[in-house]
Write the structure tokens for this entry.
Amino acid sequence: MPKRKKEERRHIRYIVDGIQGNVLYPADLEILNISIEGAAIETTKWLDLNREYTLKVKSKDIVLNLRGRIVWAVLTSKEKKGSGEVIPVYRAGVRFTDTLSEKTTMLINFIEENKIRTFEKRLVGVRFKIVTLQDTKIDYPYKYEVKKMSLSGMLVETEYALDLNSNYDIELFLGDNVLKIIGRIAYCEKIDSDDVTKYTIGIEFAEVSDNDRGTLKEFLNTLEDG
């Protein structure tokens, strides 16, 4: 049963068990071709079928955040430039899920400014190959397990170190709810272990929607009642 630990904090922090989530860490990405419906991409990270990811594409002073679902994915390989080393890479197809009117206009402008040539024609439209961009990322999920939680933050355990004072998009799973949070890394310490390297991470909730904050508060109330 979860236990409450009294501490001198703005909000009471509770010890919890079995609560998990993802820190969405930006990983390198290459766009092979793109249209207003979707894109073919390449990355060194495996992407789960039917999962939604956010692609962050920067061109000049504009950053496009494109949300899309993975519809196919294959493992391939390529030679690392300059070293001759062969590394595994994954190619995947993304179908955009949030290209509403304003974002569609921005995406069309982006394609027009960066396209090299028509890549191929499809029933749903034309795909374009674009110039190689240096600052293109995909938010890749790194799992964590919550150890303590309050209305203003949480202490988690993960296998990955995170940058102090940096903000990350975070998913927090509470029952059937997935809370979307922007968290600031306030603390990061390596756990001494002979097995898998792990880190204790302190996360301060920097931005939480009113709806998600209400869901979090209801969850914490059940711990207090218990």
About this structure: Residues 25-137 form a domain with the Thrombin, subunit H fold (CATH 2.40.10.220). Residues 38 and 153 are 36 Å apart (CA to CA). The chain has two domains: 4-23+141-225, 25-137. Confidence is low (pLDDT under 50) at residues 1-7.
